[in-house]
Structures are given as structure tokens and as C-alpha cells.
Protein: FadR/GntR family transcriptional regulator
Organism: Alkalicoccus halolimnae
Amino acid sequence: MSFKQIQTKKISEIVREQIEERMRAGKIQPGDKLSSVVQLAEEFQVSRSAVREALSALRAVGAVTIRQGEGTFVNEYDFSGIFDPLKKERVISKQEMLDLFEVRKIIEAGTAELAALKRTGQNLQEIRDALTDMETASEESVGEAADVSFHLAVAASTQNKTMVQMMEQLADTLRRTMFEARRVWLFSEKKSLNRLFEEHMHIYEAIAASDPEAARTAMLAHLSHVETTIIEGSELA
């Protein structure tokens, strides 16, 4: 007799879900300021680090904005689009994955190039915030959300609304590929995840330096590495 694997949740994920439920129910409205980390930790009876990670996950998907020295503010957000890796999803075939990366390389290489030319100081801060969330995430779901947030922040740096809309339409599919990549890396050496972070840092540094060619090259190198990792390391048919 075989048993199904029990899916466990970390404390920060439970905190995030409870905050989401309040937002869905309208108990917390767009524009509202959330209680401080200390107050939320006391209310939920959890550690401050668990609250910070929950807020980072919400920020990574655009549900909240964290303003240094001011607090955390609620944004307009449609939670129906959030990808939950614990839910059963249609399996993406190997060919579909290859097709997706062809599209990503075409779109995101140009996005990074344009971002290096048109980014603002605020754009750089948003990209850097996503990097920080990626670096400090202790849960895979937070890391995936921060990864998506990074790529959307790069798109926003182009100041091109059509580009942003295209990337937002791809967001759910991006989460699927990032989940698959991190699942593969989860069973490999830690240095693989470190390399993933470094690749994102190279993209950020090129954009910060206003170097479009370097930004394009860094983005292509990153996407090619992720593509190879998924295709060679996963069980896609």
C-alpha cells in the first residue's frame, strides 16, 4: 500500500496566505498601510523573520510595495493569477519549453538592452529589491516569486507599456519555468543556485551601468543556462 506524500507549509507561507485572505475579503484595501513587522509578528505569534519573508513574497508578485522608512502598502492585485507549485498543473512538454525559451530570448534580450538605456533610479531599486528577496529567500516559492519580480522589474525599466504588458501576460508561464528550474537545482549542488543569483546580478550591474550590449549579453547567457539546465536535468517528455 502506497501513501501520497504530505505537503508541508512553512510558517512564512501560512502568514502570507492569511494576509492574502484579508486582501481578497476586502478587509485590507489597496493603498492601506499594513502593520509593522513587529506588530504582525505579535499578531500572528510568529518570528519577525517569518513575517519579513511573507511580505517579501507578496512584494515579489506585486501585491504590496515596501517603502524604506515608511512601511508596507497594499497594491491593486489579482490573486487568481498566482502560480501555486503545490497544485497539480498540466505538464509542459520538452518542445513547449524549447518554444518558450526561444520567445523569452527574443523578448527579454531586447528588454534588458532597452532597460539599460531608459531605466530610472527607482527602477534600479525595484530590480535590486527583487535580487535581495532572491538572495535571502529560504522557501522555493519566495525565490520563484522574486525571480519573476526581477524580470518584470527589468521590463518596467524600459518605460514601454506594451513591453510590460507582454511580460505580464507571460508571467504565469515564467513561474512555471522558474519552478521547474529551481526543482532541478534543488537536487544539485548549492553553487548552482549561487550561480543563478550571480547571473541576475550581472544583468542588474549592466543595466545600472547603462551598458545595453552587456545587459543583452548577460540576459541571453542567463536564459541559455536556465534552458540547458531544465532540458538536461528534468523529466520533460
